[in-house]
Design goal:
Number of strands: 4
Strand order of the largest sheet: 2-3-1-4
Structural class: alpha+beta
Largest sheet: 4 strands, antiparallel
Helix content: 25-40%
Strand content: 25-35%
Radius of gyration: 13 Å
Number of helices: 3
Order of helices and strands: EHEEHHE
Mean pLDDT: 98
Distance between the termini: 5 Å
Length: 102
């Protein structure tokens, strides 16, 4: 299984309704893109104070690396990714993405 982790610094001027719609779009990828086992998304609520400006995170669990590799160029992922980049502080610089084999 591959776990795809995305941390985002969402713009502070982003209306709550847009944040909620973005989270729903991220969750919706599970029904649109084959090979996704689970998606979790939410706002930081850690009391540690180590978020370094990242306000939201999501994980996507894929059955394997092939499923992850097919997800990356998928048109539905491209649409969601474009919305996510537009919602972050500094565009793509407001994102941190890591994958690992779980």
């Amino acid at each position: 299984m591959i776990r795809h982790i995305v941390l985002a610094r969402l713009r502070t001027d982003l209306p709550q309704a847009e944040t909620e719609a973005l989270q729903a779009a991220i969750r919706g990828m599970k029904t649109e893109i084959p090979g996704i086992l689970q998606i979790a998304v939410g706002a930081d609520n850690s009391p540690e104070g180590l978020a370094r400006g990242y306000s939201h995170a999501f994980t996507v669990d894929f059955v394997d690396a092939s499923a992850r590799d097919a997800y990356l160029p998928h048109p539905h992922h491209a649409k969601v990714a474009k919305a996510l980049v537009a919602a972050t502080q500094g565009g793509v610089d407001g994102l941190l993405v890591l994958d690992f084999e779980a």
